[in-house]
Design a protein that fits this description.
The structure holds 3 protein chains of 3 kinds. Chain B is of the alpha+beta class. Helix content of chain B is 22%, strand content 23%. In chain B, a hairpin with a 5-residue loop joins strand 2 and strand 3. Chain C folds into 3 domains: 216 residues, 3-Layer(aba) Sandwich (Rossmann fold); 79 residues, Ubiquitin-like (UB roll) (Roll), CATH 3.10.20.600; 88 residues, de novo design (two linked rop proteins) (Up-down Bundle), CATH 1.20.1440.230. In chain C, 41% of the residues lie in helices and 12% in strands. Chain C has a 5-stranded mixed sheet, sandwiched between helices. Chain C has a 5-stranded mixed sheet with strand order 7-6-10-8-9. Classes of the chains: A mainly alpha, B alpha+beta, C alpha/beta.
Chain lengths: 207, 69, 434
């Protein structure tokens, strides 16, 4: 492959990965213990989250592969996972390496989920919250397409999507917490319809 | 004979098991699963395995029950 | 002893028969009266097998509420190999029970001898005595006994005392073993009861204090003396705390199979009881037509009750059984360990409905809702805590059925507003309170 086509492949796959990772984040963040109100099948959302994350990993792989194979600038294999060791773009490739490391941890731990304690898996999975903004920083820090208006718009849309998901999640969490408190008191009047709730028990939370 | 077992300590009322296996699992008014005690018909076993695999809290396990117990 | 019941006098004709109460308290007199604990002289496989056979022959069942055969538990612990722990469960979370406090104050050496015997039978390396924090009289008595035994070298396996939190579920055996192991008092989900509890990497054998006292007596008297009292299917004696509308509340030792009303009469009830609460706050009410039922596991199960912990509370005629039940279930709801949805949410809901019913404020759907929730909550927790509350509530609806009809129609009995005759320890951590 020519260096130019490799370069285009790196940039394109990077942007696609960014969008897919954003979608993965949104699907993960908006998981609740019950979304029964809209007859939304929770297990389907979880499955979608998993499958999109795998497609994202594929594009991430293409992104990393093509960036190393591209001989125009030198980025060694090691530099993709060891931060700040690349001769080209030391800072922002390094930031990308950090994000890649975190995502690998999340991905591998999910593959091995059955073999580890739930608390351990959950703790590693929370690294996703760190890996995503770091990936975005890498994308815009590298600068290649960061000046183009449509790329900026795309990045802004991704940030908005995750911010909206987080806001929804926090509000939903507060609502469920107050339902939980009401249910655990003696004055709870039984709900007129079953659509609402699944409050969380004390001490539990989920990624 | 396969029996569905719910670990009530791990369960956090996600409700995926009831979505996947409504013939055998219903949900109480607070979102927690009620497993009916009847033996699982063979055509539902794969859905039961999926429910066990997909539970975010790994609260569902399947147990082999010797028949005649 | 302000915080333990008094012993009601035992008949003099019983002094030569198997009994737990009435023996001397301090170590010297205990050994003089009963002889030393028949421990083996060295590591002795034959002795351990013989001891298991002794437990099997006696038919001793646990006295902590479940009534589980002691021999089966011992066999499971023996299978766990050496180096384990014997846990003396003196938590006595049932507020209406005083027997374990009494035993540890009056006959601590019987309890500790029992622990030493089980330690020898399982090659355990330590004995841990669990007394809830705040129970100073019991703790002091145990401390004295432990010091006596150490000075006289009567404790081949080291004995220590610890103080878990004073909550109802803290005495559940997996919660207790868990607290000793990790400091967290939470019952575990144990679908296979046959698997022994573990503390660290070794097996843990948890027993109620009274059960251990029986072990120590049976080891000295032989199984026949134990079986000569009580029934063939439920042998021996039990300590029962009698309280409520009685003149002389306290702890009695009775033979298993004694009719319930006879146990109640030992405490001199003020009048004819309206009902008897048997087995504890997680037990069941018994109506007058069943007052002659023998205090034994099978007989009680046949009338929808359980032997549970040795507790009989007499409900006087000027009390409201529904309101007392509502208060009890409210207390139990507040004592949930908080791990399982059906218990955390189901018990307060049931308690709320029972309270509304008792006050005469029932809505049209209340009885149906209550019935459904009792059915749904039963058996869906990791431990038996919600099951006990359900059993109590169900028995109340049956035994006080006439009251249920009246209260549901908005015409409650005149006594619902009276002060409770039941004890409810205050727990700052409880989310709901009676």
């Amino acid at each position: 492959m020519s260096s130019t086509s490799l370069w285009y492949a790196t940039r394109a796959s990077g942007l696609v990965a960014m969008v897919l990772l954003t979608l993965t984040m949104v699907l993960g963040i908006t998981t609740t213990t019950r979304a029964r109100a809209r007859r939304w099948p929770g297990f389907a959302q979880q499955e979608l989250h998993r499958r999109i994350s795998m497609i994202a990993v594929v594009f991430l792989g293409i992104h990393v592969l093509t960036s190393v194979l591209d001989s125009y600038v030198h980025i060694g294999w090691a530099a993709t996972v060891i931060p700040f060791t690349s001769s080209y773009g030391r800072l922002w490739v390094g930031v990308g390496a950090i994000s890649l490391d975190l995502m690998l941890a999340v991905f591998v731990s999910s593959l091995l989920r059955a073999r580890m304690r739930p608390g351990t898996w959950r703790a590693i999975h929370w690294l996703a919250y760190l890996s995503w903004p770091v990936a975005l920083a890498h994308a815009f820090g590298m600068g290649t397409d960061a000046g183009k208006s449509w790329v900026i718009a795309l990045g802004a849309a991704c940030v908005l999507a995750v911010a909206a998901a987080l806001a929804w999640r926090l509000r939903e969490g507060a609502r469920q917490a107050s339902i939980r408190t009401a249910h655990a008191s003696l004055d709870a009047v039984p709900p007129k319809h079953l659509a609402l709730t699944a409050p969380r028990k004390n001490g539990s939370s989920h990624a | 004979m396969i029996r569905i077992l719910v670990d009530p300590v791990a369960c956090d009322a996600y409700g995926y098991c009831a979505e996947l296996l409504p013939e055998a699992i219903t949900v109480d008014e607070w979102g927690y699963p009620i497993v009916d005690g009847k033996p699982l018909p063979p055509e539902l076993v794969s859905a039961a395995r999926r429910a066990a695999r997909d539970c975010p809290r790994r609260a569902i396990t399947l147990r082999e029950r010797k028949s005649g117990h | 002893m302000p915080d333990a019941g008094e012993v009601l006098a035992t008949a003099t004709t019983e002094t030569d028969r198997y009994r737990l109460l009435g023996h001397p308290t301090d170590l010297g007199a205990h050994i003089a009266a009963l002889g030393p604990a028949p421990l083996p002289t060295g590591a002795n496989r034959g002795w351990r097998d013989a001891f298991l056979a002794l437990m099997e022959a006696s038919g001793l069942g646990g006295r902590g509420g479940a009534g589980f055969p002691a021999a089966i538990k011992l066999a499971a612990a023996q299978g766990g190999g050496p180096g384990g722990t014997i846990v003396v469960n003196a938590m006595e979370g049932e507020p209406a029970s005083d027997k374990d406090k009494l035993l540890l104050i009056r006959s601590p050496h019987l309890v500790l001898d029992g622990a030493q015997l089980l330690a020898a039978a399982t090659r355990a390396r330590r004995i841990i005595v669990c007394v809830p924090e705040g129970r100073h009289h019991v703790a002091n008595a145990v401390r004295r006994a432990l010091d006596e035994r150490m000075a006289a070298r009567c404790a081949p396996v080291p004995e220590v005392m610890v103080h878990p939190p004073d909550r109802f579920t803290a005495g559940e055996e997996s919660a207790l073993a868990g607290w000793v192991d990790s400091g967290r008092s939470l019952p575990s989900f144990r679908p296979d009861k046959g698997v022994a509890l573990r503390i660290g990497r070794h097996a843990a054998l948890v027993h109620n204090a009274e059960t251990l006292a029986h072990v120590a007596m049976i080891a000295r008297t032989g199984p026949a003396a134990f079986r000569n009292r009580g029934l063939a299917e439920d042998p021996g004696t039990s300590l029962v705390t009698v309280s409520g509308a009685v003149e002389h509340p306290g702890v009695v030792e009775i033979e298993r199979g004694t009719p319930l009303i006879d146990i109640a009469r030992r405490a001199l009830p003020a009048g004819e009881p309206q009902a008897l609460l048997i087995g504890g706050y997680g037990g069941a009410w018994v109506a007058p037509r069943h007052f002659a039922t023998p205090y034994a596991s099978l007989s009680l199960r046949a009338i929808g009750a359980t032997a549970g912990v040795g507790i009989v509370v007499v409900l006087g005629s000027t009390a409201c059984g529904l309101m007392e039940s509502a208060r009890i279930v409210t207390y139990l709801a507040g004592q949930s360990a908080g791990q399982c949805g059906p218990c955390v949410y189901g018990l307060p809901a049931i308690a709320g409905d029972l309270t509304r019913l008792a006050r005469g404020e029932a809505d049209a759907g209340l009885l149906g809702r209550l019935d459904r929730r009792l059915r749904e909550v039963d058996g869906r927790g990791a431990c038996r805590h919600p099951d006990g509350a359900v059993q109590l509530a169900r028995s109340a609806l049956q035994v006080f059925a006439d009251d249920v009809a009246a209260h549901a129609a908005g015409a409650p009995c005149p006594y619902w507003n009276r002060a409770s005759q039941f004890r409810f320890p205050v727990d700052a951590a409880a989310k709901v309170r009676p």
